[in-house]
Amino acid sequence: MARIYVTREIVGEALSCLRALHEVEVWPGPGSPPRAALLAAVADADGLLAVLTERIDAELIEAAPRLRAIANYGVGYDNIDIEAARARGIAVGNTPDVLTEATADLAFALLLACARHLVEARAAVAAGHWGTWEPAGWLGLDVHGATLGIVGLGRIGRAVARRAAGFAMTVLATRATPLDELLERSDFVSLHCPLTPQTRHLIDASALARMKPTAILVNTARGGIVDQAALVEALWAGRIAGAALDVTDPEPPRPGDPLLAAPNLIVLPHIGSATRTARAEMTAVAVENLIAALDGRPMPHAVV
Ligand code: GLV
Questions:
Q1: DSSP alpha helix (H) spans, the chain
Q2: Measured in angstroms, how far is the CA atom of residue 74 from the centroid of ligand 1?
Q3: Is any ligand 1 atom within 6 A of the Cβ of residue 272?
Q4: Which atom of ligand 1 is least distant from the CA of 99?
Q5: 219 Cα–ligand 1 center, Å
Q6: Please, are residues 188 and 148 in contact by the beta-carbon 8 Å criterion?
Q7: Is 273 touching ligand 1 by the criterion CB < 6 Å?
Q8: Ligand 1: which of 10, 73, 92, 99 to mutate, most ligand atoms within 8 Å of CB?
Q9: Selection from 211, 141, 207 nearest residue 169 by Cα
């Protein structure tokens, strides 16, 4: 029987399968375990089930001499020092596929909401500012027939492209179209690449300057892909029409972060995969990954 530390209460039935096989300790919350508690908890752990807010770095790996398996609860794994894990022979897995459609739904919801000012219009109604029907009120952008640029045509990018087909959109993707050209031609740019040293601040001031002044940026990938200071400046200067972010850098933004005051911006609290089904399936995949690795088998969804 192995000892497994789980850094959050997670949804779904699958955790009971893990409990039937191993000794499982779950951080009760609220929120993440403080760093010191996490370092102490992994000291005798054989397996770790972590969510993406936990920094699984060389220090943590060193503090966990027995650790053999890390199951990340999410598809992105930029929170994990993969090289440090590899050097120790620790298996690392993620939860792809099961959250693809939910995340693509949210990207499209953000795109539509930003194009048609849903958030501001709803707030105006709630504040009692619905005077009368206005011919020139709340004018937004057409989504149908527009051009969508997808940066990162992986599983989620392709799922967004499938939705775009239903809106008769022209889809450009970075696999076939150079990024500069994609930025210049797109009415909507949606980010779906992982955060890596190569993609950090991929969307910087010069990338934003290439976008049409009528264009909207959607980010459901990772906050660090966008240079947020440059985005704030571009929004205030009207260099792009709007942005809709499910992810920021850091998360949450610090109080007083200029991002939160920027115009034509929607910010959500990183809820791309937050459907009951997706989250329960993520639990199942993370548990399968752990059980396999602790049993000496390859993880079904291994990244190392
Ligand atoms: C969420 O952002 C994930 O990587 O699953």
A1: 15-21, 35-41, 58-62, 82-88, 100-115, 118-126, 155-166, 179-185, 205-210, 228-237, 276-294
A2: 4
A3: yes
A4: 5
A5: 12
A6: yes
A7: yes
A8: 99
A9: 141
Ligand 1 nearest-atom number relative to CA 95: 5
Q: What count of other Cβ atoms lies within 10 Å of the Cβ of residue 198? A: 8
- What confidence score (pLDDT) does residue 175 get? 86
| pLDDT band, very low/low/confident/very high, at 250 (cuts 50, 70, 90) | very high
Q: Are 285 and 277 in contact (CB under 8 A)?
A: no
pLDDT at position 72 is 98
Q: Domains of the chain, with CATH numbers?
A: 3-98+276-294 (3.40.50.720), 100-267 (3.40.50.720)
Q: Which two tokens stand for residue 66?
A: 């027995």
Instruction: Return the structure tokens found at 162.
Output: 């499938």
Task: Give 144-196 pLDDT, tens digit per residue.
Answer: 999 999 999 999 999 999 999 999 999 999 989 999 999 999 999 999 999 99
Q: In this predicted model, what pLDDT tens digit does every residue of 228-245 receive, in sequence order?
A: 999 999 999 999 999 999
